[in-house]
Each structure stands twice: as structure tokens, then as C-alpha cells.
Amino acid sequence: MKIINAVKKQIFNILKYFFLIFFALVAVVPVVSCVFTAFKTADEYQTTSVITPPSNWLNFDNFVKAFQTANMGRAFLNSLIVMVFVLAVSVIVGTQLAYVLNRFEFLGNKLIRNLFLFASLLPSIAMQVSVYKIMSSLELVNHLYGYIIMMCGTDVISIYIFIQFMENISPSLDESAIIDGASYFQIYWKIIRPLLRPAVVTSCILKGVAVYNEYYCANLYLMDKRIRTISTSLYTFVGPMGSQYNLICAGVLISLFPALVVFILCQKQIYSGITAGAVKG
Amino acid sequence: MKWHKTRKGQQAIVIVCFVTVPLLLLMLFTYIPFGQMVQYSFFKMNYLTPPDKREFVGFKNYIDVFTRDDCFKALKLSAYYCVGALFQLALALFLATILSFKVKGGNVFKGMMFFPYLISGIAIGFIFKFFYTRGFVFDSILQMIGFDLENLPYWLKDQRVNNWSLVATSVWRYFGQNMVLFIGAIMSVDAELYEAASLDGANKLQQFRHIILPSIKTIVTLNVILSITGSLSAFEPPYVITGGGNGTGTYFVIMNEIAHVTQKVGLASAMAVVLLIIIFVCTILQKAFFKYVFRDADSTDESYSAKKARKSRMRLGRKESGR
After folding, report:
1. What is the CATH number of the domain that holds A77?
2. Would you tell me which residues 261-290 of chain B have a C-beta closer than 8 angstroms to some C-beta of chain A?
3. Can you tell me the distance from the alpha carbon of A251 to that of A253, in angstroms, rounded to the nearest whole number?
4. Compositional bias of type Basic residues: which residue ranges (chain B) (predicted)?
């Protein structure tokens, strides 16, 4: 009986690792094949199979060439500018809104919450049909600041994360500050804002990744080559260069490198952010 | 005392200050366009038509959505994505369960499966164009395990398989994210319950059925419903990989084309409104469904806590008899 149990356990263990390894490979193989190809010279790419590793792992020519052809230096700068502004605005506006909605009972509180909730149901791609018209009548198309303003306006998830977090900050802190003579602005700035910091970090990482990867609107509103962001700079490889996959793979890898670094450094926050955002949403 | 110095007055000031900007942005980029979209859907117009030249066509655009071949066919494609999404949820739940037990290198596995979620849609497009190209990654792997290239279809061209290929990329991208979500939910289950269960001799399958599943029922149902609305608005895989060619154009791909390429703004708006109505109906059904589930959950919760109490009592009893 004991032997049978031990065998059962062993089989269960083997199956467990088999499935884990299999699906981890499924997740990784498409990217790894890109890594292989990105290090290959044009000749090597033509003659070897795509799943054989490159002969020289230090051949960075493709990366350099991809970086230059797609003007990725400029694109990184643009993406950085967009991210800094969008994150700054959405953190300030989001924490302020969460503070007001969570702490004060006022006419319209429920209405505002519902307006944001309802907005989260509208798929943004469908909305672009008429947002485009507004953007062009406000002359915001083809300007980096126009894109930034639009990206600030379509933010719901982080407001939820803030409101949820606010619920765990005791209102007695506010009250004792009021007794000490603090104004509501001071309470927001000196008590709430510092206490919200973990939520701010979480939402910045999530929102940061989303902004960095956003390409539909970037493609729609930033046509000019000089204001392309990282994700739209990859469009350079569509068309005449469409079959030089060693170059394309290098470009793709450059574009996902920052996301990889952030992921390795902030795994915990990313996971907790995803869980937090989902429970409420 | 002046009005703005009172506590109520101060509150009003801070509320107005902190609410104005977000509401303004919300109006400008969500509700005004929403209103306009509904309005446009009754007109025949493009982006440059001045307001007085727009031609009022009544419900013609809506009739077109259901009678035009491209629009309606596209709506049917979401069935593929729906199947994919359900498979994705089942897979995520399965892997989350495995990972919630003791696993060596669990974090590495988790990280590897989650990472695709952080790759931009356009990069995924390139990765999978490369992956599926004739004789490239996927074909090479299949050949390695014994398939003959002659018998393999063109993954992105052959209309029998190409939609499945695209759905697979979407599953690839999101299953890790779903898994992390489920792991979070499973972890929030009281660890004592597992202990008690294994002391009672419950095997893993029983643990899954009686402990894990009931406690994450809510989040699973929520995700099932979200994935149904999500598959109606499937957009990225076909948009970036095939451009909607060869019968892969989903509803949003067609809508995007109608709006921004052929500039039939009225028709595109009608398409958007139709989809929104479908999504609302789904959401309302979801609310109703949740009410039903929660009514049900109350009774199961009771037996659930009763079970827990029984288990801890039994454990106590065992300890005592051991002494």
C-alpha cells in the first residue's frame, strides 16, 4: 500500500513538472527563436534553420542596424516623455479623485463613481471613431502633447487601485489632523499622498507598461516620423524590410528589453497590481 | 465666520478642485465622443464632411451592420476567440493550481508564463508572423517531432486554420496573466484549510474541488464573463499579424478599416454602438447572474464554514487522543 502511494506521488510529481515545463516552453519558445535569429548574420539567417542557435552570440550588428533604421533613440525619448507626463498626471489626478470620493459624502459622489465605472465598459478602440474627430477639431492630432492629454483622460484602473487602497487608511488620521488645524489640502498632501505610495508604485508600473506598449492610438495620432514612440517605431519594419527577420527580431528585442528589466526588478508589485486591479474591476 | 472658512465650505472647495480635471478629461474623451458616436450613426458622413452637409439616413447604417457581408461575418468570428478564451481560463486555472502547491522553481515558471503579457501588441505581431511563416519556427518544431512539412497547412493563409492560429497568439499572451490572477485568489485561501484537508487524507483533486474551487468561484465567473465580452472586441492579433486578410478580420478590424481607411464614419459609429449594446446586455446579464450565484453561495458558504469547524474539531480530537 505504501509503495503504491509512493509511486502515485512520484507520478503526480512527474506530471506536475511535465506540464509546467511544457507550458513554460510554449511561453518562451517564440521569443527565444527571435533571440536566436537576432544574433545571426544575413548569410547565416538564409542558410540555417530558425531554431538552431547562432554561431556567434556577440554579433550585435543587427541590433545596431535596427536601432538606427527605426530611429529608436528618438523613439525611446518620445516614449519616455509620454510616460513621464502621463504617469505624473494620472497619479496626481487619480490620488486626488480617490481622496475626495473616499472621504467625502457629497451630491454626485455615487454618480462620478458610476460614470467612471461605465466608462471602463466602453472599448477604447470603438471610441476612437469619434475621439479622432474631437482630437482633430482641437488640433491635437500629430502632436506629442495631444497624445499625452488623450492618454491621461482614459484612465480608470488606477483610480480603482487608489480608492481600494484608501479604504484601508483610517479616517481617524484625518480627524486628528483636523483637530490640529490642518486644511483638507494639507491632509491630502501630508497624510494621504505619502500613505498611498505603495498603491502609486503599483499603478505606475501597470500604467507604465500599458503606456509603453500602447500602439493603436499612437499609430492613429502620431503619424509624423519624428514623434513615433517605441511601439510605433517598429512599423518601420513593415513593408520593404518585411522579410529581413534577423533585423526585425533585433528591433523587437530592443523594444521589449525595458519591459523585461522592469519585470525582473518589480515582479512582486506587478503581480500584486494585477490581482488588485482585477478584484475590483 | 465666512462661508469658505467653515468645514463644509472647505470640503466643497477641495471637492471642486480635485474633481474638475478628471471629470473634464472623462467628458472630453469618453462621454462627448460617446454622444457624438450615437449621433453620427444616423448620418452618412466622413471625417471632413461639414455638419450641414451630413446626410441623415435614419437607421440605414444599423440595417447595414446586419446585412453587409463583411460586418456580420466578422461578428461570427468572435466565436473562435470565445472558445480560445475559455480554453485560456481553464489552462490558467490548471497551472495556477499546480503552482499553488509546493513546486521547485515555481517563481521561474510563473515568470516565464507571465512575461508575454508585458510584450506590446505590435512586437507580438512580428514575433508570431515569424513564428508561423512557412518553414520557420512552428513548422521546424513540428518537423522535429516527426511531422512532414508537406502535410502542414499555411498557418496564416489557410482559412481552415488561420483563425485558430490567431486565437492561439491571444491565448499565449494572456494565459499567464490569468494564471497570476488565480494564484492570487488561491493564495488568499486560509492555509490551515489545506493542512486540515491533508491531515484528513484528502488528495490533491479533492483539495482542488472542495477547497480551492469554492473559494475562487467568484473570480473565475467574473473572468468567464469578461472573456466573453473580450472576445467580441478581439482586435490585436488579426490587426497586427494578418491585417485582417484571408478571412481573419474580426469586428473591430473591419470597423477600424471602415472608420479610418474608407472613412464611412456613420457606418463605423453604428458598428461601435451595436457592439456597445451587446456588451451592455452581457454586463446586465452578468449582474443578474452574480445575484443568482451569490444567493447560491450563501448556502454553500454555510456548509463550507461548518465543514471547516468540523475539521478543526476533528484535529483537536486527534491531538487529544494522541496525548
Report:
1. 1.10.3720.10
2. 265, 268-269, 271-272, 275-276, 279-280, 283
3. 5
4. 307-316
Which of A154, A234, A274 faces B126 most closely, judged by CB atoms? A234
Shared-domain flag, residues A87 and A141 = yes
Give me B197's grid cell: 484537508
Identify whether A100 is part of a domain.
yes
In a domain, A65, yes or no: no
Q: What's the pLDDT at B207?
A: 79
For residues B107 and B150, give the distance between their C-alpha atoms in angstroms, rounded to a whole number: 40
Residues of A in Cβ contact (< 8 Å) with B99: 20
Q: CB-CB: which of A51, A93, A260 is closest to B21? A: A93
Q: ipTM strictly over 0.90?
A: no
Of B108-112, B116-120, B156-160, B222-226, give the lowest mean pLDDT range.
B222-226
In this prediction, residues B234-248 reach a mean pLDDT of 86
Tell whether the model's pLDDT for residue B38 goes beyond 60.
yes
pLDDT of A107-119, one tens digit each?
A: 889 999 888 888 8
Q: Grid cell 510605433 — which residue? A: A232
* B205 CB within 8 Å of a chain A CB: no
Which segments of chain A does DSSP mark as H helices, in order?
2-38, 42-47, 61-69, 72-103, 109-119, 124-137, 144-153, 157-166, 171-179, 184-187, 193-195, 197-213, 216-221, 230-233, 245-265, 267-280
Cβ-defined contact of B123 to A255 (cutoff 8 Å) = yes
What's the confidence (pLDDT) of residue A280?
43
Give Cα separations from A236 to A31, A75, A277, B292 (angstroms).
Answer: 20, 12, 34, 52
Query: Shortest Cα distance from A204 to chain B (angstroms)?
Result: 14
Distance in angstroms between the alpha carbons of the first and the last residue of chain A: 49
Contacts of residue B275 in chain A, CB cutoff 8 Å?
123, 126
Chain A residues whose CB is inside 8 A of the B172 CB are 26-27, 30
> Quick check: A30 and B111 CB within 8 A?
no
pLDDT in tens, A156-189: 777 878 888 888 888 888 889 888 888 899 999 9
Query: pLDDT confidence of B116, banded at 50, 70, 90?
Result: very high
Q: Which residues contact B4 (CB under 8 A, 6 or more apart)?
A: B10, B13
Q: What is the mean pLDDT of chain A?
A: 88
What is the pLDDT averaged over residues B286-305? 60
Pick A160 or A191 by higher pLDDT. A191
Distances (CA, A) of B319 to B191, B312, B314, B323: 19, 11, 9, 6
Domain count along chain A: 2
Q: Does residue A81 belong to any structural domain of this protein?
A: yes
Looking at domain B75-292, its CATH architecture is: Orthogonal Bundle (1.10)
